[in-house]
Amino acid sequence: MSARGGARPPGRDRRARLLPPRPGRERIAGGPPSAAVVGGGIAGLAAATVLAERGVRVVLHEREPQLGGRVSGRPVTLADGTRATMSRGFHAFFRQYYNLRSLLRRADPALEMLAGLPDYPLRHSSGLCDGFRRVPRTPPWNALGFVALSPAFGPRDLLSLRPSAALPLLDVRTRRVHDRLDHVSAHDFLDSLRFPAAARHLAFEVFSRSFFADPRELSAAEMALMFHIYFLGSSEGLLFDVPREPYPQALWDPLARHLAGHGVTVRTAAPVEAVRPRSDGGHDVVDASGARRYDAVVLALDVDGLRALVDRSPGLGDAEWRARVARLRTAPPFLVSRLWLDRPVAPGRPGFLGTSGYGPLDNVSVVSHWEGEAARWAARSGGSVVELHGYALSPATAPDTAAGELTEQLHRVYPETRDARVLDVRHEYRADCPLFPVGGYRDRPTVRTPDPAVVVAGDLVRTDLPVALMERAATSGFLAANALLERWGVRGEGLWTVPDRGRSALLRALARRGATVTGSTTAGREKRRSRA
Asked: Is the peptide bond before 155 cis (omega within 30 degrees of 0)?
């Protein structure tokens, strides 16, 4: 159902798609059921919010001291005695993130905690630079405008492109694109397009690495879906917002207060040891304080956490489901380094810069340009706060070595930082993001499990909707809550997504024609091989 059915779209895209919930009561009637939400990241917070708002008694278990998962922050004390916040790293809050924004509006209806950055600039070590500030937002003019404005596309480059190979991008539908492209790597798919090298680095690999994966290991279907979500399928554009303050203060503390107002018990630093099905249909959730019975359970964990909990809970699910969970993989490690420098960066440096060709460095954020806490420190000290990201690092590279390489590449990107003194530095080295490998789509768990009282949420979940990254986490959390509420006859949360199809009838027809030609060619090759 599109927004044209009468519902007001949540953004500027009039073709945004509304998925209404199943009919039901507004709230739980009678004695409320209980639900344990295991995991306090975006997915768990989304599930807990919808369940609690409908009258379910919710206890949220989080193993870390802070809420937010991979968008969390922890307090630190700097060398000068200043209290500051170290986070898991920069995240872009794109305007296509309708469901995540719906979650955040519970605590901030006007989303005043978010501020827009003026551009999404990209820079290659060769000197080529791109950005999206001047690119039109509405497809297909955004794609044409990007090509026309980008220095990475020359006349010869355009002649070398293979438009036929790009036809699947013109009509991306979540299930169909995985049927067609999940067996191909993002790297090989880009090869088939014959994109110019510079444009490939700037326009695609920067985005594919935002999945924390090397393009050689990432499914081409995930990259195509991402291209649809952020570019050809949406008119929201590629500009994004950032929180005005660190994640806990801007996002999760206010949301925790909202949850408390609906009776949610939040247990941080309380890892769950096991989930045990009971003969009465409920489940015992076991942590260090003992076992508590719940009517339903939401498993909103990262890959390692889900695998470990399922392994410690032999009664959960059936053999096939447990085997699928066991086969989930994590992406390679990533590193976030935040530097408190004794001087500002040069005037005009953007708040965020995507980079390519600078060794392991994938982006640079001048945090003091947009985050209040960092800006106040910079104003007092006369310095700046700069954050570096390195994705898909080699596991063989020691964290200290990787940190040194990121800092050295920063000096190449912003030479003025070479003479700056580092007053303090903090690092986050993690390997807990899901990997979406070639051929892995069918193996990923869905929200529903063999046990109707147990559901799964998180960005590792297969939703069959055009969502990714933080938005996939929020959407899956809403879907998990809806699945449980449906059992109790209660209406769940309505969901919004970008359209799950190409926006132009002509382009959809071209995509269908390309699929037919490709299928006929493949069938012919197989027939000739069988005859041989």
From this structure: no
